[in-house]
Amino acid sequence: MAGNDAPRLKVRDIAMSERPVRFRLPFRFGAVTVEGAPQLFVHVEIEVKDRGRASGAAAELLVPKWFNKDPALTGDQTVEQLRRALAIARDLYLAEPGFDTAFGVHAARYDAVIAACGRERIPPLAAAYGPAEIDKAILDALLRCLGRDVFSGLAGNIIGLDRRLTPDLDPGAIEGFLGGRTVAPKIAIRHTIGLTDPLDALATELRQTGSRYVKIKLGGDPAADRERLKSIAAVLELLGFDYRATVDANEQYADLRALAALIEALRRADDVRPIARRLLYIEQPCPREATWTTALGDAAKMFAFIIDEADDDYGAFSRARALGYRGTSSKACKGYFKALLNGARSAQWNHAGERTFMAAEDLSCQPGLALQQDTALVTFLGIGHAERNGHHYVDGFADTPDAEAQAFLEAHADLYVSRGGRVRLKISDGCLATGSLACPGFACAVAPERVGPGPVRLSHPSAKGA
């Protein structure tokens, strides 16, 4: 299906609610420690031209101090910015009376959302959260209306994706990319090692899950990070299995001079060499603003680098590539349209002989709707492994009502298991199965009305160290 032949739709209603999520252990990344966060649920009703009405849903954590790390703001204030971005997007999505494709609805409002948020000092990465969540719920509703699963639906471009926001893409690149996807039956999980995670439990956790991929959080001090890598390398070597690693500085390296010290240790220090040999890429080392002021230079010849927090608009991947970065992250909370278009970009560049890639990162996607939608996106993009935090920092479905958790267990028995009185992720040999995600809707066989609380605001934990 060509983009201009995609179904037309109109957004009739958007409702939002929240549920508090308590973490079983603190998650420290960058300068913030999170012990809990509200989980957002978005429910939409759309009318598809000549097809009738349908409902859809999306879910995501409202993570403090990631979308905006301004030290002048508290964690709660950064969460309020996300709520405001959602409210602004909701009003703009409901204001247009005409029919358009799913992507057309987004593209017609994206700049207005960013501009309106900018007037309230909400940065672009946080501003984009609003459209990202609403767009996921719209896709869910559209797929349910048409009786399509997300993999065949995206491959057929029922969303009407085109190059209007990415004019650097060649004509035909999008259709070629979407139509050429092959969905794998499983995806490997990458185990996150947060800055406060106890290393004495790491070996047990990896043995239990069978994971062979790890993601290591760094703090921005080259000497301290070298010692951290040394300690983690020792644990991993004792396990006696091959593994692959990524490291994530979450913008903590002030500049390339500081980063150079870490690079030197990775290149030359015997005690961190086991990790260096298996290092796939280094994620977002410098602050997002500093990303655009200096090319990586020789560092890019030694290791692959990707952007994450700096990926705050549709042109970011292209600008980063010009500075030596080879990849960017896919996160549904940054927008699935952008992830698909960046995937098409990477495919176009690689066809011309480059070696760029998409990586799958996570802000603690919770078991259930959020994890399934993000995992389906990653699987469609063809990424073989993904950071998955929900099984690690949260106790199964946490505070989700039992009936809702059981509904997910029954509908997606290949993804979940009941153990220790909780419904949990079913991790087999370090992987998650993707088979049950191929159901009508956006990777969820549970009806939208059975997911999440009603449209009321709930109290929520706050971030420490903000």
Folded structure, characterized:
The chain has 466 residues and is an alpha/beta fold. The chain folds into two domains: 3-164, Enolase-like, N-terminal domain (Enolase-like, domain 1, 2-Layer Sandwich), CATH 3.30.390; 175-450, Enolase-like C-terminal domain (TIM Barrel). It has 17 helices and 14 strands. It has helices at 75-95, 102-118, 124-127, 129-146, 150-155, 173-179, 202-209, 222-239, 256-268, 273-277, 288-291, 299-302, 316-322, 336-351, 369-381, 390-393, 402-411; strands at 9-29, 32-48, 52-61, 186-193, 213-217, 244-248, 279-283, 305-307, 327-330, 357-360, 385-387, 416-419, 422-425, 431-433. Strands 4, 5, 6, 7, 8, 9, 10, 11 and 14 form a nine-stranded mixed sheet that branches. Helix 13 links the parallel strand 8 (305-307) and strand 9. The longest helix is centred in the first third of the chain and has 21 residues, at 75-95.
Number of strands: 14
Low-confidence stretches are: 456-466
Helix amount: 25-40%
Outline the biggest β-sheet: 9 strands, mixed
Mean pLDDT: 94
**Overall CATH class of the largest domain:** Alpha Beta
Shape type? globular
CATH architecture of the largest domain: Alpha-Beta Barrel
Terminal CA distance reads 47 Å
| Overall domain count | 2
Strand content: 15-25%
What is the CA-atom radius of gyration, in angstroms? 21 Å
The assigned structural class equals alpha/beta
CATH superfamily of the largest domain: Enolase-like C-terminal domain
